Amino acid sequence: MSALYAPGARVVIRDCEWIVRRADPSDDGGYVLTVDGLSELVNGKSARFLTRLEEQADAIRVLDPAQTRFEQDLSPGFEKSRLFIETQLRQITPADDKIHLGHKAAMDPVPYQLDPALQALKQNRQRILIADAVGLGKTLEAGILMTELMRRGRGKRILVLTLKSMMTQFQKEMWNRFTIPLTRLDSAGLQRVRNHIPGNHNPFYYYDKSIISIDTLKQDNEYRRHLEQAYWDIIVIDEAHNVAERGSSSQRAKLAQLLAGRSDTLIMLSATPHDGKARSFASLMNMLDPTAITDPDDYVRDDFSDKGLVIRRFKKDIRDQVKQEFKERVVNDVYLHASPEEEAAYQYLLDVPFTYRGEHSQSRNGQLVRIGLQKAIFSSPAAAQVSVQQRIKKLESKPDISPDEKVEVQSLHSLLLALAKITPQQFNKYQHLLTLLGSKAFGWKKNDTDDRLVIFSERIETLNWLHGQLQQDIGLKDDAVRILHGGMSDIEQQEIVEAFGKPESKLRVLLCSDVASEGINLHYLSHRLVHFDLPWSLMVFQQRNGRVDRYGQEQTPVITYLINQSDNPQVRGDQRILEILKDKDEQAYKNIGDPATFMKVHDAEAEEALTMDAMAAGTAAADFDAQYQADDSNEGDDLLALFLNPDAAAPVTSEQAEQHTVERYSLFDNDFDFARQALEALNREQQVVSCSINRERQTITLTPPDDLEYRFRFLPPEISPQDGSLVLTADKQRFEEEIRRSRQDENAWPKLHYLWPQHPAIQWLQDRLLAQVARHSAPVLALPESPQVTQAMQGADSVFLVSGLIPNRKAHPVIWQWFAVRCSAGAVLDVQTAEDWLSNLQLNTRLPNRAEPISLAPLEALRQPVISAVSAQMAQLQQAFSAARQPELEQQLAGLQVLKGRQLQQLDLQLQGSGQAEHFKLARREERSARIEQIFADYQTWVRDTLSIEPVPFIQIIAAFTRASA
To answer: I want to staple 54 with a disulfide (CB 3.0 to 4.6 A). Which of 60, 180, 531, 896 is the partner?
Structure first.
């Protein structure tokens, strides 16, 4: 593309002036320009133009810097120029691998939370799986990376896929912390979109940034078709293990594979990123990088160790950094003895002659039926009754029920009678729960709105029973106890999670199923969690506890296990196996990190199956314990260890974090000072916006004018200014308090907005300031005689502030430098770094402006020599960049050729081992090899376009400085 269409260029299209935000190749051989309006008619509006179409109509003109018009700044203290220069400085996008803005979000980042962004920014394109353990703040880490990409002009269009229950939570976290406005497309949001846009329009283009449930997309064919026609800058897949291929290619996996090719940046989040199977994990890696793995069933670290696709830490790894942010959990084991009625039910269960395929079976298959019912009894009599009834119904519905099955049915009816005798008074686990809730030692007060309780059970029948029984026995009203499970609608799940975090809601006890244990935040008003039944999977222990024991928890998490014990040796042995799982989870929490390292199947259902197999086989608890021990090599996680970047394994320290962050040069003390002076200056010329400013509280209250209000039309309705008033604060502590306070509000969204560069109002303000300077003009500052001016000028008559930008072939700015070009006697003296020269001038202080008219002719005569001098500087930078990147480009292209050869070779090996007919194998080879060729061709093009830069720079004269006496 022509570098004249680089981001930051000012162009005239259809007689209106626009600033180019991005330029993307289009199918017609030209480019799609995404622009923001600067001239009065289009100010505040965004548009897209096809360059080929506009060029044919002669309706597009790139402004020649040699024709820049000069306007002397007559404003007091050169205020207009200072604001204009500052705004132009803010347009500069970084091209390095450091953190420029993410660390300033509305949070107190811990060093380790910068690591994923630092690792991803080292890549040519950002593709990463953030696989930190439960509760470490993966959402925040993703937000930091997304912010950095947005700062670089590569985050205009964002799509987030998450679970139904987490859409609101994720949406609020992105807005509150990072001012990333995701429109929630839940069932209500989708209906709103259908009502607002024409039926043939793509909703994913109507909203640039949106969040949707992957199950909604999976079920809605219309929106899936829209997906295939849309493209994003960033796609985030939360709880990404749900989209991995597990044996067969699920709808979720197919959808994720489709999306993986619809964005340059792909961020995956999962604390449980694989199920222990090489092929399953390979499917995630190939979504991140389709060239990564040759054989999904057999791969080694050396194939791709330098790609940096995964980052993974456990709490033990970052404990030194988070002493304040993480409280050490307190674990209470409440041991209790089964009542006589429960013991009788256990014995009836053991006496049932279970059948398999119509015959009484003492084998594993018959015992697994018994273990399934035992699992229900260990949860509650209510759950067991449902399971027994389902077993009876299944057997009795058979048209050819066998004699052995009839005997089993009779025994099951006896078991039902025994279960019916376990009343709440004879259900010891429940009685111990009541004692616990009322004890001073436990300390929970049902009337304390800031102290909520979470109770987990794997069975919905148990939750339903607890819901009714707890209301009756501890005097809670119906709206004080709610159930949360995965079968609920997206709206209902989000509403319950929201209510649990609001102090003013009447909700006190949340009864959760394990389906609801992924990802959701329950820690705002709760630090007590009770396991009413013990999980049969180590990964479920981790997921449950992570709801309250997570980053941001301000209280000490209290985890309580209700552990039933039977006098029956067989039942007691099986219960002991569950206790061993609990002990292993605690061992993982304290010393290892990943609980999956014990059973090594990395999947909750697979872990449950191993536990059931052990019980069915009559495995002794000690043998079960010995069988599943942590592996010392890579802590048992050999598969994931393949992908960890050894250079990025250790988390950064606070000192290292400072080395990896950049403080942007500014002419103002802070964002608040810039916004304040900008609003005051705009209102002095004409009453642009009604506002009030509180310097002490660093708060700005304004009534959005029409062009700012227009911008909010395309943002989530939840963040629109309330009562026609927008309140911005730069006080981080005050905004944090507002986030906490907002949970008490009816809609639970902060009424304050965070004042920083990413807020739409600040971006609107910057566009307003750019529009204050006439089309293709630059301000002239006639500097007064003073020691600081004399020192800065150093014998020069004039100094030109000039921007030089060179993008890569993907239109991403790669080199963006500002220069101070010093001139004397009609010629260029030298070229300096603009930041150093501005610092010497101390333009951030208020220099007096005499406002005496000067002749602009000498400056106009210097425009071309100045541009030539900067062009020479940019040529040197371009040559240096190309020389440095050429070996990298050649190395990457050569590496891709090797990987492609391996994949084609692997294809041949697979086909050789196939028993299919030759014509089928030939067709498969043609199809698969064509796909491999296409994947690598696309990737090679992408690498070339990323590492190759345009030869012609875009140069802009920002301002000119001369002496007032000249």
So the answer is: 60
Kindly state whether residues 771 and 817 are assigned to the same domain. no
Mind listing the pLDDT tens digit for each residue in 26-38? 777 788 888 877 7
pLDDT grade for 949, boundaries at 50, 70 and 90:
confident
Q: What is the DSSP string of 424-487?
A: TTT-HHHHHHHHHHH-TTT---TT-TT-EEEEE-S-HHHHHHHHHHHHHHHT--GGGEEEE-TT
Q: Are residues 130 and 259 in the same domain?
A: yes
Res. 299: pLDDT tops 80: no
pLDDT tens, position by position, 692-724: 999 999 999 999 998 888 888 888 888 888 778
Cβ neighbours for 655, distance < 8 A, ≥ 6 positions apart: none
Q: Which helix (H) or strand (E) holds 798?
A: strand 798-807
Pairing of strands 509-512, 452-456: parallel
123 CB burial (10 A radius; 0-12, 13-18, 19+): middle
* Backbone torsions φ then ψ of 98, nearest 5 degrees: -105, 165
Residue where the block lists tokens 């005239």: 12
**What tens digit of pLDDT does each residue of 242-283 get?**
888 865 557 788 888 888 888 989 999 988 777 667 777 888
Phi, psi of 458 (to 5 degrees): -80, -15
**Which two structure tokens, joined as six digits, stand for 245?**
């291929």
CB 506 within 8 A of CB 480: yes
If asked whether residues 636 and 649 sit together in one domain, one would say no
Q: Write down the residue that tokens 């259902």 correspond to.
A: 605
Residue 889 burial by Cβ neighbours in a 10 Å radius (0-12, 13-18, 19+): middle
What local confidence, expressed as pLDDT, does residue 636 receive? 40
Residue 866 lies in a domain: yes
Instruction: Please indicate, yes or no, whether residues 412 and 446 belong to a single structural domain of this protein.
Output: no
Q: What is the pTM of this model?
A: 0.81
280 contacts 241 by C-beta, under 8 angstroms: no
Query: Alpha-carbon Rg of the chain, whole angstroms?
Result: 33
**Dist CA 943 CA 929 (whole Å):** 21
Q: Are 413 and 437 found together in one domain?
A: no
Both 649 and 703 in a single domain? no
- Six token digits for residue 677: 């002076």
Report the distance separating Cα 253 and Cα 251, nearest Å. Answer: 5
Report yes or no: 281 and 273 within 8 Å, Cβ to Cβ.
yes
Mean local confidence (pLDDT), 523-537: 88
Q: What is the pLDDT of residue 312?
A: 85
The string of DSSP codes covering 19-51 is: EEEEEEE-TTSSEEEEEEE-SGGGTT-EEEEEH
State whether 47 and 135 are in the same domain.
Answer: no
My answer on whether 786 and 894 are in the same domain is yes
CB 217 within 8 A of CB 242: no
Give residues with Cβ within 8 angstroms of 804, minimum separation 6. 815, 816, 817, 818, 819, 870, 871, 873, 874, 877, 953, 954, 955
Q: How many domains is the chain built from? A: 6
Q: What range defines the domain where residue 859 resides?
A: 782-966
